[in-house]
Design brief:
CATH topology: Purple Acid Phosphatase, chain A, domain 2
Number of strands: 13
Distance between the termini: 28 Å
Shape: globular
Largest sheet: 7 strands, mixed
Strand order of the largest sheet: 4-5-6-7-9-8-13
CATH superfamily: Metallo-dependent phosphatases
Radius of gyration: 18 Å
CATH architecture: 4-Layer Sandwich
Order of helices and strands: HEHEHEHEEHEHEEEEEEE
Number of domains: 1
Number of helices: 6
């Protein structure tokens, strides 16, 4: 189990401006479309916060959104918010080109999702997951130069984790892709910092370490998660864990990734309930409000310009304490 010294964490939170980190690419560059996507999580029934977040994401013109769990009740939120802002899941769109990918969280009717998700969302996702898995909850897809692996931590593990069957599928899937950038998504973090410590994947360190070794050995760039309601970015064995925080009326966390032929840039936003309503590149490099009170913006770059970082120490690059 990777340990993190609190003193070390505190020291590394003294950062101003943008943090830029580069990782090596293991594959030959294939020319592909530029793609931008967002990752959010844990909006639950706080639709006021969701409306603010989706207003911002629509203005940023992201190509699709990944929701890293705890989206229930989706029935009310989907037509009034996601669909209203043009983020649709429908039968007329190919499974690997949908606008939103919902990942099962612990409040989402695990392991299959709530009835609305099962009937209106899941049938239109890729069907390449492990045999017997709940429909639309474990699959992978490609967009641009990216390969995305959606996992369900509650399939055959009601408390949250990965069975040997799902781990084997994740490993096979990662080994089969030749995309430049690979991302994995699940709800609970492997290395929780602020909440749910010893109550996430770390409750079973052996399973967590097998999972993380699979990511590291297959050049995964980042594991997106939620659950703790705190935005953070940590790195272990060269793989980032980006905990995407939460969406509420008073505390909004958003991760936006822009990906092209040679690099992917992840920008981590956190605001005290306020977001700009128009696309504004300046928001990527500074506080999101003029006074900066409670609002932060960080940047992580995944590129192919330097040697692979094999450092096994998990450093905390972004940590939020309370809100």
């Amino acid at each position: 189990m990777v340990s993190v010294q609190k003193k070390r964490l505190k020291k590394m939170t003294i950062i101003t401006g943008c943090l830029i980190v580069s990782l090596a690419a293991a594959t030959t560059c294939v020319r592909a479309e530029s793609v931008s996507f967002a990752v959010i999580s844990d909006h639950k029934a706080d639709h006021a916060g969701l409306e603010k977040a989706l207003t911002f994401l629509a203005a940023q013109r992201v190509d699709f959104i990944i929701v890293a769990g705890d989206f229930s009740p989706l029935r009310d939120a989907y037509p009034d918010y996601y669909a209203r802002w043009g983020f649709l899941v429908d039968r007329d769109t190919p499974p690997d080109r949908q606008d939103v990918y919902f990942v099962i969280g612990n409040h989402d009717g695990k392991p299959s999702g709530e009835p609305f998700f099962q009937t209106e969302i899941a049938p239109f996702y890729p069907e390449n997951g492990p045999p017997g898995a709940p429909m639309g909850t474990i699959f992978s897809f490609d967009r641009g130069n990216g390969h995305f692996v959606v996992t369900n931590q509650y399939w055959n593990d009601r408390e949250g984790g990965y069975t040997s069957e799902q781990l084997a599928w994740i490993e096979r899937d990662l080994q089969s892709t030749d995309q430049r950038f690979t991302f994995v998504i699940g709800h609970e973090p492997a290395f929780p910092l602020d909440r749910h410590v010893a109550d996430s994947l770390d409750v079973n360190p052996e399973m967590r370490d097998v999972f993380w070794n699979i990511l590291a050995e297959n050049d995964v760039r980042a594991f997106f998660c939620g659950h703790t309601h705190h935005l953070s970015a940590v790195k272990s064995q060269g793989v980032y864990q980006l905990d995407t925080g939460e969406i509420t009326a008073s505390h909004i966390s958003i991760v936006i990734v822009e990906m092209n032929d040679t690099k992917a840039v992840a920008r981590l936003y956190e605001t005290a309930g306020w977001v700009p309503e128009a696309a504004d590149d300046n928001a990527f490099n500074a506080s999101l409000r003029e006074n900066g009170d409670g609002d932060e913006a960080y940047k992580v770059v995944f590129s192919s310009d330097i040697e692979h970082d094999n450092n096994s120490f998990m450093g905390c690059f972004v940590q939020t304490v309370g809100h």
